[in-house]
Design a protein that fits this description.
The protein is of the alpha+beta class. It has helices spanning 79-85, 135-144, 162-174, 187-191, 210-225, 238-255, 262-275, 319-334, 408-423, 426-430, and strands at residues 2-6, 16-22, 29-30, 35-40, 45-49, 54-58, 65-67, 71-76, 228-236, 281-284, 287-290, 296-298, 300-302, 305-307, 310-311, 348-352, 371-375, 378-385, 388-402.
Length: 432
């Protein structure tokens, strides 16, 4: 019985996807729930698993654009038994083992007349432990004898793709130094000192992925179709850091999740949003749509682009539930299991450029939302408290907002409210 392998539906608005990579090749035996291939749309990256045990036959190729519902392969559910029962040909084995001869320290004169054995082929180093290669990548690595430990993976979870290997080979052929590798000197350079190597102006052209195209489209739309403005402030993170340090172990022991800064900011934003409903509203045509719920999106960077999973009804969640939601989203992103429903319905967004070392930036609106909060790195700076100069761990924060619906005074006061809640986190518990 043959089972069709189809491109699954990942949302009503998505009609096509790119087949990024096959994890199995035609003729391979696959098991139920084993990942078969990776697809990418303009919103999500998703691994598609096998529904049954059987033998795979691929139809579509890597890099093909496929429609939702298209058949990209088949699985012969009866083929597994045939593969198991058919004996595999084994190479002939000598009945008598040949004892290994010790290598003499000095070769005998007669040995000099014998032809030299062919030089052994260059061995391809095995991939590092835990590194999985798709059949196509494994075949290319074997043919070109590439040391995969020197190839940087750009696929999901750092997976090495076929494009990564081809880029590595191109850099080698062009003589471009590879990271963590010293450039090799040619014989001509060794013999002729002072001679400059040929300079190559290399360019690499790659198509934009569906996610990257969608990100570009949305960012350009936000710049062109909104009256975006940004206000800034700075927050003393000392009190939150003290609480986090003091209760870190007990919190993890009780809730099985780490206490981070994001849960404090989510709670602070929810409290401020209740006071300034316009910041939690959308513009739809000539009307303003106010939300009486708080779905907070948290921007998370992934190898294929920025995604914004949504923490739903954040006002009803505790610190541990917020932190667990973020952990679950990060795991889904790494495993290519993030669904379109995980990213829909947000009313406000928080992005943390501080994890990448950003000191200050202007976040762009996640339309149709009316505002986005940008967090940045914590840095010790001298500030004045009670007419004395002291060193405190400070963070710059930025609030970008749509001036068509949010007044400047509301935006500034909203950001000050977040500052008050973070600098005095007890207010978050007392809701004052």
């Amino acid at each position: 019985m043959k089972i069709d392998v189809k491109v699954p539906s990942v949302g009503e608005s998505i009609k096509e996807a790119m087949l990024v990579e096959w994890y199995k090749k035609s003729g391979d035996v696959v098991k139920k729930d084993e990942p078969l291939f990776l697809i990418e749309t303009d919103k999500v990256t998703l691994e598609v698993t096998s529904e049954v045990d059987g033998v795979l036959k691929t139809i579509a190729g890597e890099g093909d654009t496929v429609l939702i519902g298209d058949v990209v392969g088949t699985i012969d559910a009866d083929g597994t038994a045939a593969v198991k029962t058919s004996p595999k040909e084994q190479p002939p084995v000598s009945a008598e083992p040949v004892p290994a001869k010790p290598t003499p320290a000095v070769p005998a004169p007669a040995a000099a007349a014998q032809p030299l054995p062919p030089a052994p082929e260059k061995q391809v180093p095995a991939p590092p432990s835990g590194l999985e290669l798709s059949p196509a990548v494994r075949r290319l690595v074997s043919e070109k004898k590439v040391d995969v430990s020197r190839v940087t993976g750009t696929g999901p979870s750092g997976r090495i793709t076929k494009g990564d290997v081809l880029s590595f080979l191109e850099m080698q052929a062009a003589g471009i130094p590879i990271p963590s590798e010293q450039p090799l000197k040619t014989a001509e350079q060794e013999i002729t000192p002072g001679k400059k190597s040929e300079q190559i102006e290399e360019t690499v052209r790659k198509p934009m992925s569906p996610i990257r195209r969608k990100i570009a489209e949305r960012l350009l739309s936000a710049k062109n179709n909104t009256a975006m403005l940004t206000t800034f402030n700075e927050i003393d993170m000392g009190r939150v850091m003290e609480i986090r340090s003091g209760y870190k172990e007990a919190f993890k022991e009780r809730h099985q999740v780490n206490l981070g800064f994001m849960s404090f900011f989510v709670k602070a934003c929810v409290q401020a949003l209740t006071e300034f409903p316009a910041i939690n509203a959308f513009i739809e045509g000539s009307e303003m749509l106010y939300h009486r719920y708080y779905h907070v999106g948290v921007a998370v960077g992934s190898p294929r682009g920025l995604v914004v999973p949504v923490i739903r009804f954040a006002d009803q969640l505790g610190f541990a539930e917020i932190e667990q939601s973020i952990v679950d989203f990060v795991k889904k992103i790494k495993d290519n299991r993030l669904e379109l429903s995980d990213m829909e319905g947000g009313t406000f967004t928080i992005t943390n450029g501080g994890v990448f070392g950003s000191l200050l930036s202007t976040p762009i609106l996640n339309t149709p939302q009316s505002a986005i909060l940008g967090m940045h790195k914590i840095e010790k700076r001298p500030i004045v408290i009670n007419d004395e100069i002291v060193i405190r761990p400070m963070m710059y924060v930025a609030l970008s907002y749509d001036h068509r619906i949010v007044d400047g005074s509301d935006a500034v006061t909203f950001l000050k409210r977040i500052k008050e809640c973070i600098e005095n986190p007890e207010r978050l518990l007392m809701e004052v």
